[in-house]
Amino acid sequence: MTLQTRLVEYRDGDTLLEAFLAWDDVVAGPRPAVVIAPTWAGRSAFEEGKARDLAALGYVGFVLDMYGKGRRGASPQESAALMAPLMEDRAGLQRRINRAVAVVREQLEVDPQRVAACGYCFGGLCVLDLARSGSDVRGVVSLHGLFSAPNHTAGRRIAAKILCLHGYDDPMARPESLLELAGELTAAGADWQVHAYGHTVHAFTNPQADNAEMGTVYSATADRRSRAAMLAFLEECFA
Predict the structure, then answer these.
(1) Kind and range of the H or E element at 177?
(2) Mean pLDDT across the stretch 202-228?
């Protein structure tokens, strides 16, 4: 097994973006791809590690860029400032993530008919918005994501399967927001499921998360369980 990586430049309108692609060159021919939407800090070693992990399992991992080439948040304040314009323009957010899906489908290593997406924290909201936009990706996985709905997709059908992997005590996505999401997805006709982990807060898949005051704490148990759930979901999506 030989893992390969490369950076992929692409554009959303006038914005130059740069994604990270990982694949195993021992696998012959096009294979399923998983688009990975980063946390509010932008692409980092954390998401690139997830892409490598997926590549080792026979997928193509593609870490998209939501902010622009080289733009990263080095602090919570910087990350919030980068995220805010997209949260205020959810149609633009959806356009940007759909652009990433279009680009991954152009890669020679990818079977364009078998694409899914996953996202972490802010990225979890991004992949839910991908589904809300009507995308025909096979499925999306939100890991400790944000659930707030945009104001322009009510009444739209959702074709992609949805899996939310959620810390029940997440202060950024409280139980009432989970119930609102369930109602929204049911009304949209989505095939959806939620796994909620007890005694678990935000960012539970990130070993660097250690801020109980902010509500971001790693959980090895929830990390292990959520990884198993996501891999089973991908197998179902790509069967």
Answers:
(1) helix 175-187
(2) 97
**In contact, 195 and 165? CB cutoff 8 Å:** yes
Query: Residue for token digits 């997928």?
Result: 59
How far apart CA 135 and CA 237 sit, in angstroms, is 14
* Lookup: tokens for 47: 């998401």
**Helices (H) then strands (E): counts for the chain:** 6, 10
Name the residue ranges covered by the structural domains of the chain: 3-238
- Rounded-to-integer distance, Cα 81 and Cα 87, Å: 10
Per the DSSP assignment, residues forming a β-bridge with 174 are none
Two tokens, residue 178: 């989970």
Q: How many residues make up the chain in this entry?
A: 239
The CATH superfamily label for domain 3-238 reads Alpha/Beta hydrolase fold, catalytic domain (3.40.50.1820)
Residue that the structure tokens 């910087």 belong to: 78
Distance CA 210, CA 201 (A): 11
pLDDT at 191 over 80: yes
Q: In this structure, are residues 112 and 103 in contact, taking their beta carbons and an 8 Å threshold? A: no
Residue-wise pLDDT tens digits, 108-135: 999 999 999 999 999 999 999 999 999 9
Residue 1: the pLDDT is 64
Structure confidence by residue, pLDDT tens digits, 16-60: 999 999 999 998 899 999 999 999 999 999 999 999 999 999 999
Distance from chain centroid for Cα 189 = 21
